[in-house]
Amino acid sequence: MTNFSYIALGSNIGDREYYLREGIRELQEHPRIRVTELSSVYETAPVGVTDQPSFLNMVLSLRTDVTPLELLEITQSVEQKLDRVRDKHWGPRTIDLDILLFNDENIKMNELNIPHPRMHERAFVLTPLCDIAASHYVSYYRQTIQELAAPLSGREKEGVHLWKNCFGQGGYGLFES
Ligand SMILES: Nc1ncnc2c1ncn2[C@@H]1O[C@H](COP(=O)(O)OP(=O)(O)OP(=O)(O)O)[C@@H](O)[C@H]1O
Ligand SMILES: Nc1nc2c(c(=O)[nH]1)N=C(CO)CN2
């Protein structure tokens, strides 16, 4: 499995931790994917559409031999399987799986943009990503993840609170409760 990718997960409907856990499990059980690391889980204030429940957010890294478009198909089928309904733009969702990075590729297609076009401005993405990839260099931004996170305002960072510290346990603390 020669490709690597970082995926952001978010949930703000129902049993949010259940949906995160099931999202990870679905990816892990895919024969062409190996989940390699999980960040901690953060509770985050909604960004964009603010009149909705708070989110649980986290990120994971994986290795795979599928293409970026195949990975998008897989993540979308996991979202569907986990009751995701697409109605309101940026509205509440049981599970959202965004492909943040795929190797060091720069992809601009109608259905897929990599790096994810809003990752650099989102504390709810960069904070968990720093758990597992702080020193990872992204050519597109000519910066490491840590450097991307540094200019985020205090207000953005204030909306992001550690909810479950799984990282110190190799990430898989999420499966222990
Ligand atoms: N890197 C990416 N990861 C996931 N979806 C992407 C990506 N780039 C483009 N898309 C497209 O974005 C479309 C909308 O995705 P989705 O409904 O999950 O957006 P969102 O999570 O509400 O908003 P945002 O993209 O700001 O996180 C998808 O159908 C997909 O084709
Ligand atoms: N805190 C938070 N806010 C959001 C999120 C999210 O995952 N977490 N996702 C969005 C659309 O993808 C819009 N706003």
UniProtKB/TrEMBL annotation:
<feature type="domain" description="7,8-dihydro-6-hydroxymethylpterin-pyrophosphokinase">
    <location>
        <begin position="89"/>
        <end position="100"/>
    </location>
</feature>
<dbReference type="GO" id="GO:0005524">
    <property type="term" value="F:ATP binding"/>
</dbReference>
<dbReference type="GO" id="GO:0046654">
    <property type="term" value="P:tetrahydrofolate biosynthetic process"/>
</dbReference>
<comment type="pathway">
    <text>Cofactor biosynthesis; tetrahydrofolate biosynthesis; 2-amino-4-hydroxy-6-hydroxymethyl-7,8-dihydropteridine diphosphate from 7,8-dihydroneopterin triphosphate: step 4/4.</text>
</comment>
<keyword id="KW-0067">ATP-binding</keyword>
<protein>
    <recommendedName>
        <fullName>2-amino-4-hydroxy-6-hydroxymethyldihydropteridine diphosphokinase</fullName>
        <ecNumber>2.7.6.3</ecNumber>
    </recommendedName>
</protein>
<dbReference type="GO" id="GO:0046656">
    <property type="term" value="P:folic acid biosynthetic process"/>
</dbReference>
<keyword id="KW-0289">Folate biosynthesis</keyword>
<keyword id="KW-0547">Nucleotide-binding</keyword>
<dbReference type="Pfam" id="PF01288">
    <property type="entry name" value="HPPK"/>
</dbReference>
<dbReference type="GO" id="GO:0016301">
    <property type="term" value="F:kinase activity"/>
</dbReference>
<dbReference type="InterPro" id="IPR000550">
    <property type="entry name" value="Hppk"/>
</dbReference>
<dbReference type="GO" id="GO:0003848">
    <property type="term" value="F:2-amino-4-hydroxy-6-hydroxymethyldihydropteridine diphosphokinase activity"/>
</dbReference>
<keyword id="KW-0418">Kinase</keyword>
<dbReference type="InterPro" id="IPR035907">
    <property type="entry name" value="Hppk_sf"/>
</dbReference>
<keyword id="KW-0808">Transferase</keyword>
